[in-house]
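Researcher: I'd like a structural prediction for the single chain below. Treat it as a standalone chain; there are no partners to consider.
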Amino acid sequence: MKHVLLGAVAAMAIGTAAAAQEKMRISLQLPLTSHLGENLTLFEKEVEERTGGAIDVEIYDSATLYKDKEVPAAVGSGAIEAGVASLTRYVGDAPVVDVFYMPFLFNTEEKVRAAVAEGSPVRETLEEAIAGTGGQVLFWQAYGGAVLLSQGEPIRTPADLEGKKARVFGKTLGDWVTAAGGAPTLISGSEQYLAYQRGTVDVGMTGVSGVKSRKLWEVMDTITKTNHANIEFVVVVNSDWWNGLDPELRGHIEAAAAVAQEDVRDRMASIEAEAYAAAEANGMTIVELTDEEVAAWQAKAQPVFDAYLEATGEAGKKILDALQ
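Model: Treating it as a single chain, here is the predicted structure.
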Protein backbone atom coordinates (compact mmCIF):
# COMPACT_ATOMS: atom_id res chain seq x y z
CA MET A 1 0.00 0.00 0.00
CA LYS A 2 2.87 2.28 0.86
CA HIS A 3 4.33 1.87 -2.63
CA VAL A 4 0.93 2.56 -4.21
CA LEU A 5 0.61 5.79 -2.21
CA LEU A 6 4.13 6.85 -3.10
CA GLY A 7 3.37 6.14 -6.74
CA ALA A 8 0.23 8.24 -6.58
CA VAL A 9 2.11 11.12 -4.96
CA ALA A 10 4.84 10.87 -7.59
CA ALA A 11 2.26 10.90 -10.37
CA MET A 12 0.64 14.00 -8.87
CA ALA A 13 4.03 15.70 -8.64
CA ILE A 14 4.77 14.90 -12.28
CA GLY A 15 1.38 16.26 -13.28
CA THR A 16 1.95 19.45 -11.34
CA ALA A 17 5.38 19.89 -12.89
CA ALA A 18 3.95 19.35 -16.35
CA ALA A 19 1.29 21.98 -15.70
CA ALA A 20 3.98 24.43 -14.64
CA GLN A 21 5.89 23.87 -17.87
CA GLU A 22 3.50 26.01 -19.95
CA LYS A 23 6.00 28.69 -20.79
CA MET A 24 5.28 32.24 -21.84
CA ARG A 25 8.52 33.60 -23.23
CA ILE A 26 8.55 37.35 -23.84
CA SER A 27 11.13 39.16 -25.98
CA LEU A 28 12.04 42.70 -24.92
CA GLN A 29 14.50 45.00 -26.69
CA LEU A 30 15.17 47.18 -23.63
CA PRO A 31 17.13 46.33 -20.47
CA LEU A 32 15.20 44.81 -17.58
CA THR A 33 16.08 47.96 -15.60
CA SER A 34 14.06 50.12 -18.04
CA HIS A 35 10.53 51.00 -17.07
CA LEU A 36 9.19 48.57 -19.68
CA GLY A 37 11.39 45.88 -18.15
CA GLU A 38 10.11 46.71 -14.68
CA ASN A 39 6.56 46.60 -16.03
CA LEU A 40 7.10 43.13 -17.51
CA THR A 41 8.52 41.97 -14.17
CA LEU A 42 5.30 43.15 -12.52
CA PHE A 43 3.29 41.30 -15.17
CA GLU A 44 5.36 38.14 -14.59
CA LYS A 45 4.70 38.27 -10.85
CA GLU A 46 0.96 38.84 -11.35
CA VAL A 47 0.63 36.00 -13.88
CA GLU A 48 2.52 33.44 -11.83
CA GLU A 49 0.62 34.31 -8.66
CA ARG A 50 -2.78 34.30 -10.34
CA THR A 51 -2.17 31.02 -12.20
CA GLY A 52 -0.52 29.30 -9.27
CA GLY A 53 2.59 28.76 -11.37
CA ALA A 54 0.74 27.07 -14.23
CA ILE A 55 2.17 29.74 -16.56
CA ASP A 56 5.93 30.21 -16.31
CA VAL A 57 6.83 33.67 -17.67
CA GLU A 58 10.36 34.10 -18.99
CA ILE A 59 11.58 37.58 -20.02
CA TYR A 60 14.43 37.86 -22.52
CA ASP A 61 15.53 41.49 -22.28
CA SER A 62 18.06 43.64 -24.18
CA ALA A 63 17.18 42.00 -27.52
CA THR A 64 18.88 38.74 -26.50
CA LEU A 65 16.45 36.73 -28.62
CA TYR A 66 15.05 39.20 -31.16
CA LYS A 67 15.63 42.81 -32.14
CA ASP A 68 12.55 44.98 -31.98
CA LYS A 69 12.07 44.88 -35.75
CA GLU A 70 12.03 41.05 -35.62
CA VAL A 71 9.41 40.73 -32.88
CA PRO A 72 6.21 40.95 -35.01
CA ALA A 73 7.32 38.09 -37.28
CA ALA A 74 8.67 36.00 -34.39
CA VAL A 75 5.40 36.28 -32.44
CA GLY A 76 3.19 35.93 -35.51
CA SER A 77 4.95 32.73 -36.59
CA GLY A 78 4.87 31.20 -33.12
CA ALA A 79 8.67 31.18 -32.78
CA ILE A 80 8.05 32.82 -29.40
CA GLU A 81 4.88 33.12 -27.36
CA ALA A 82 5.00 36.89 -26.81
CA GLY A 83 7.03 39.99 -27.47
CA VAL A 84 7.17 43.71 -26.83
CA ALA A 85 7.27 45.93 -29.91
CA SER A 86 6.89 49.58 -30.72
CA LEU A 87 3.59 50.08 -32.52
CA THR A 88 5.42 51.33 -35.57
CA ARG A 89 6.99 47.89 -36.09
CA TYR A 90 3.61 46.84 -37.51
CA VAL A 91 3.41 49.63 -40.06
CA GLY A 92 4.30 47.34 -42.99
CA ASP A 93 1.21 45.19 -42.41
CA ALA A 94 -0.96 47.81 -40.73
CA PRO A 95 -0.12 51.41 -41.77
CA VAL A 96 -2.77 52.80 -39.41
CA VAL A 97 -0.57 52.08 -36.36
CA ASP A 98 1.62 55.06 -37.13
CA VAL A 99 -1.07 57.48 -36.01
CA PHE A 100 0.76 57.83 -32.68
CA TYR A 101 3.79 59.16 -34.55
CA MET A 102 1.95 61.88 -36.43
CA PRO A 103 3.72 65.18 -35.66
CA PHE A 104 2.32 66.97 -32.61
CA LEU A 105 -1.06 65.20 -32.88
CA PHE A 106 -0.99 63.82 -29.34
CA ASN A 107 -0.23 67.08 -27.60
CA THR A 108 -2.10 66.40 -24.34
CA GLU A 109 -2.19 63.54 -21.84
CA GLU A 110 -6.00 63.54 -22.08
CA LYS A 111 -5.88 62.88 -25.82
CA VAL A 112 -3.41 60.01 -25.35
CA ARG A 113 -5.49 58.37 -22.64
CA ALA A 114 -8.67 58.68 -24.69
CA ALA A 115 -7.00 57.04 -27.70
CA VAL A 116 -5.52 54.09 -25.77
CA ALA A 117 -8.60 53.43 -23.63
CA GLU A 118 -10.24 50.01 -23.93
CA GLY A 119 -12.96 50.18 -26.59
CA SER A 120 -11.84 53.47 -28.16
CA PRO A 121 -12.16 53.56 -31.98
CA VAL A 122 -8.43 54.28 -32.24
CA ARG A 123 -7.36 51.31 -30.13
CA GLU A 124 -9.90 48.93 -31.65
CA THR A 125 -8.87 49.79 -35.21
CA LEU A 126 -5.18 49.33 -34.47
CA GLU A 127 -5.59 46.05 -32.58
CA GLU A 128 -7.79 44.63 -35.33
CA ALA A 129 -5.10 45.46 -37.89
CA ILE A 130 -2.35 43.86 -35.77
CA ALA A 131 -4.45 40.71 -35.31
CA GLY A 132 -4.03 40.05 -39.03
CA THR A 133 -0.31 39.33 -38.46
CA GLY A 134 -0.82 36.20 -36.36
CA GLY A 135 -0.42 38.02 -33.08
CA GLN A 136 -2.83 39.91 -30.89
CA VAL A 137 -2.36 42.73 -28.41
CA LEU A 138 -2.44 41.66 -24.77
CA PHE A 139 -1.73 45.08 -23.29
CA TRP A 140 -0.20 48.48 -24.06
CA GLN A 141 2.91 49.97 -22.48
CA ALA A 142 3.29 53.74 -22.35
CA TYR A 143 6.75 55.03 -23.30
CA GLY A 144 6.22 58.78 -23.30
CA GLY A 145 6.93 61.60 -25.72
CA ALA A 146 9.63 61.56 -28.38
CA VAL A 147 12.62 63.88 -28.01
CA LEU A 148 15.62 64.81 -30.16
CA LEU A 149 19.22 64.19 -29.07
CA SER A 150 22.29 65.99 -30.34
CA GLN A 151 25.91 66.70 -29.60
CA GLY A 152 27.12 70.25 -29.07
CA GLU A 153 24.09 72.20 -30.29
CA PRO A 154 20.32 71.72 -29.75
CA ILE A 155 17.92 71.00 -32.61
CA ARG A 156 15.47 73.83 -31.99
CA THR A 157 13.99 74.36 -35.48
CA PRO A 158 13.79 72.55 -38.83
CA ALA A 159 16.71 74.72 -39.97
CA ASP A 160 18.88 73.02 -37.33
CA LEU A 161 17.94 69.60 -38.71
CA GLU A 162 18.45 70.43 -42.37
CA GLY A 163 21.04 68.22 -44.04
CA LYS A 164 21.64 66.12 -40.90
CA LYS A 165 21.16 62.36 -40.56
CA ALA A 166 18.64 61.52 -37.86
CA ARG A 167 17.84 58.22 -36.19
CA VAL A 168 14.17 57.27 -36.57
CA PHE A 169 12.20 54.18 -35.55
CA GLY A 170 9.27 54.29 -37.95
CA LYS A 171 8.13 55.34 -41.40
CA THR A 172 6.02 58.30 -40.32
CA LEU A 173 8.81 59.68 -38.14
CA GLY A 174 11.05 59.33 -41.18
CA ASP A 175 8.54 61.27 -43.29
CA TRP A 176 8.57 64.03 -40.66
CA VAL A 177 12.36 64.26 -40.66
CA THR A 178 12.37 64.39 -44.47
CA ALA A 179 9.72 67.13 -44.51
CA ALA A 180 11.86 69.13 -42.08
CA GLY A 181 14.92 68.84 -44.32
CA GLY A 182 16.79 66.02 -42.58
CA ALA A 183 17.86 62.55 -43.71
CA PRO A 184 16.13 59.76 -41.75
CA THR A 185 17.99 56.56 -40.86
CA LEU A 186 16.04 53.62 -39.44
CA ILE A 187 17.94 52.23 -36.44
CA SER A 188 16.55 49.82 -33.85
CA GLY A 189 16.47 50.84 -30.21
CA SER A 190 19.12 48.34 -29.15
CA GLU A 191 21.53 49.68 -31.79
CA GLN A 192 21.16 53.43 -31.25
CA TYR A 193 23.93 53.78 -28.62
CA LEU A 194 26.54 52.53 -31.11
CA ALA A 195 25.02 54.64 -33.89
CA TYR A 196 25.50 57.80 -31.81
CA GLN A 197 28.93 56.74 -30.62
CA ARG A 198 30.17 56.02 -34.15
CA GLY A 199 28.56 59.08 -35.71
CA THR A 200 26.34 56.98 -37.98
CA VAL A 201 23.74 59.70 -37.42
CA ASP A 202 24.00 63.31 -36.26
CA VAL A 203 20.69 63.49 -34.43
CA GLY A 204 19.00 60.99 -32.12
CA MET A 205 15.34 60.34 -31.52
CA THR A 206 13.88 58.34 -28.62
CA GLY A 207 11.76 58.60 -25.50
CA VAL A 208 13.53 60.31 -22.61
CA SER A 209 13.21 57.18 -20.46
CA GLY A 210 15.41 55.45 -23.06
CA VAL A 211 18.11 58.07 -22.45
CA LYS A 212 18.24 56.91 -18.84
CA SER A 213 17.96 53.15 -19.35
CA ARG A 214 20.57 53.11 -22.14
CA LYS A 215 22.83 55.80 -20.59
CA LEU A 216 22.76 57.80 -23.82
CA TRP A 217 24.35 60.75 -22.01
CA GLU A 218 27.62 58.94 -22.66
CA VAL A 219 27.25 59.60 -26.41
CA MET A 220 24.97 62.65 -26.66
CA ASP A 221 24.95 65.83 -24.58
CA THR A 222 21.71 67.67 -25.46
CA ILE A 223 17.99 66.82 -25.29
CA THR A 224 15.49 68.97 -27.16
CA LYS A 225 12.00 68.47 -25.69
CA THR A 226 10.07 68.45 -28.93
CA ASN A 227 7.48 65.88 -27.75
CA HIS A 228 6.59 65.57 -31.43
CA ALA A 229 5.16 62.05 -31.11
CA ASN A 230 3.69 59.74 -28.48
CA ILE A 231 5.59 56.46 -28.25
CA GLU A 232 3.53 53.38 -27.48
CA PHE A 233 4.68 49.79 -27.11
CA VAL A 234 2.42 46.75 -27.16
CA VAL A 235 2.82 43.31 -25.63
CA VAL A 236 1.66 40.92 -28.33
CA VAL A 237 0.94 37.19 -27.97
CA ASN A 238 0.86 34.54 -30.68
CA SER A 239 -2.80 33.95 -31.57
CA ASP A 240 -2.57 30.15 -31.85
CA TRP A 241 -0.76 29.83 -28.52
CA TRP A 242 -3.25 32.17 -26.87
CA ASN A 243 -6.32 30.41 -28.24
CA GLY A 244 -4.90 27.04 -27.16
CA LEU A 245 -4.75 28.06 -23.50
CA ASP A 246 -7.41 27.05 -21.01
CA PRO A 247 -9.99 29.89 -20.80
CA GLU A 248 -9.44 30.19 -17.04
CA LEU A 249 -5.71 30.71 -17.58
CA ARG A 250 -6.42 33.32 -20.26
CA GLY A 251 -8.63 35.15 -17.78
CA HIS A 252 -5.86 35.23 -15.18
CA ILE A 253 -3.34 36.50 -17.76
CA GLU A 254 -5.74 39.22 -18.92
CA ALA A 255 -6.25 40.34 -15.31
CA ALA A 256 -2.47 40.51 -14.83
CA ALA A 257 -2.14 42.46 -18.08
CA ALA A 258 -4.74 45.01 -16.90
CA VAL A 259 -2.74 45.61 -13.72
CA ALA A 260 0.53 46.07 -15.63
CA GLN A 261 -1.04 48.33 -18.26
CA GLU A 262 -2.58 50.69 -15.69
CA ASP A 263 0.57 50.78 -13.57
CA VAL A 264 2.90 51.95 -16.34
CA ARG A 265 0.40 54.49 -17.70
CA ASP A 266 -0.14 56.05 -14.28
CA ARG A 267 3.60 56.27 -13.56
CA MET A 268 4.63 57.72 -16.93
CA ALA A 269 4.85 61.36 -15.84
CA SER A 270 7.10 60.52 -12.87
CA ILE A 271 9.18 58.14 -15.01
CA GLU A 272 9.88 60.94 -17.50
CA ALA A 273 10.62 63.45 -14.73
CA GLU A 274 13.16 61.05 -13.19
CA ALA A 275 14.74 60.44 -16.60
CA TYR A 276 15.17 64.17 -17.27
CA ALA A 277 16.69 64.60 -13.81
CA ALA A 278 19.11 61.72 -14.41
CA ALA A 279 20.10 63.10 -17.81
CA GLU A 280 20.77 66.54 -16.35
CA ALA A 281 22.71 65.05 -13.44
CA ASN A 282 24.91 63.29 -15.98
CA GLY A 283 25.78 66.48 -17.82
CA MET A 284 23.08 66.76 -20.47
CA THR A 285 21.54 70.10 -21.43
CA ILE A 286 17.72 70.07 -21.52
CA VAL A 287 16.22 72.47 -24.07
CA GLU A 288 12.58 73.65 -23.97
CA LEU A 289 11.06 74.98 -27.20
CA THR A 290 9.24 78.28 -27.47
CA ASP A 291 5.75 78.43 -28.99
CA GLU A 292 7.26 79.98 -32.13
CA GLU A 293 9.75 77.11 -32.49
CA VAL A 294 7.00 74.51 -32.08
CA ALA A 295 4.97 76.33 -34.74
CA ALA A 296 7.95 76.15 -37.12
CA TRP A 297 8.00 72.36 -36.76
CA GLN A 298 4.23 72.08 -37.12
CA ALA A 299 4.36 74.09 -40.34
CA LYS A 300 6.38 71.23 -41.87
CA ALA A 301 3.92 68.52 -40.83
CA GLN A 302 1.17 68.63 -43.48
CA PRO A 303 2.96 66.36 -46.01
CA VAL A 304 3.18 63.73 -43.25
CA PHE A 305 -0.58 63.80 -42.66
CA ASP A 306 -1.21 63.62 -46.41
CA ALA A 307 1.05 60.57 -46.75
CA TYR A 308 -0.65 58.86 -43.79
CA LEU A 309 -4.12 59.32 -45.27
CA GLU A 310 -2.92 58.09 -48.65
CA ALA A 311 -1.48 54.93 -47.07
CA THR A 312 -4.39 54.18 -44.74
CA GLY A 313 -7.51 55.30 -46.64
CA GLU A 314 -10.80 55.18 -44.77
CA ALA A 315 -9.30 53.53 -41.67
CA GLY A 316 -6.83 56.38 -41.26
CA LYS A 317 -9.49 59.00 -41.84
CA LYS A 318 -11.71 57.33 -39.23
CA ILE A 319 -8.91 57.46 -36.66
CA LEU A 320 -7.96 61.09 -37.33
CA ASP A 321 -11.62 62.12 -37.21
CA ALA A 322 -12.03 60.35 -33.87
CA LEU A 323 -9.00 62.16 -32.46
CA GLN A 324 -10.31 65.54 -33.56
